[in-house]
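cron nightly-structures :: item 1 of 1
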Amino acid sequence: MGIPKKAVTQPITPSYWADACKHLVKKDRVMKRLIPMFGDACLQTRGDAFVTLARSIVGQQVSVKAAQTVWERFAALPPVLTPANVLKLKIDDMRSAGLSVRKVEYLVDLALHFDNGSLHVNAWEAMPDEEIIAELVSIRGIGRWTAEMFLIFHFMRPNVLPLDDVGLIDGISKNYFSGEQVSRSDAREVAAAWAPYCSVATWYIWRSLDPQPVGY
């Protein structure tokens, strides 16, 4: 089983975004200040599950700029970035693109999972968040954080709260606690007002730290 074919030329944006912004502005004083600062910008997906997960692996534990450079080199190696084509790449070529030995192993394992049909890719759309996370963390190099980024950036699920995300915790510290470092329980308490749109609020918290949207 391969990945579902989606001809996506333009990024897709969430249909719920305007409603989410209205809700957040009404419920949260920080969101009331942040949301108008970023105009029409919003979350976007390019619709390719394998590419989204591969990009998240490449981006682990490195800066956004460094990740983009390595990603561009890696993505240029095969004629089309598909699981089958990644499995045909030479390890040395992948290493030359700037990937660590471990990330090469992770990307190969990801490609194997997509290529051999062990993932229920065609069922993901209808599956609850936690079931998708459980399936994804069986892949080497994918932990809960990466799975949550996938839910936000690929499926645009509206109510994901990635408490393992450093940017989210830092942004909550900055915007709600005058920079004082907060715990996960503090962050969860702040986010209670965001539901059912935690993904949207998280996106704006990220923007408050870096106005340039991150894409996967």
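cron nightly-structures :: done
Residues 207 and 213 are 7 Å apart (CA to CA).
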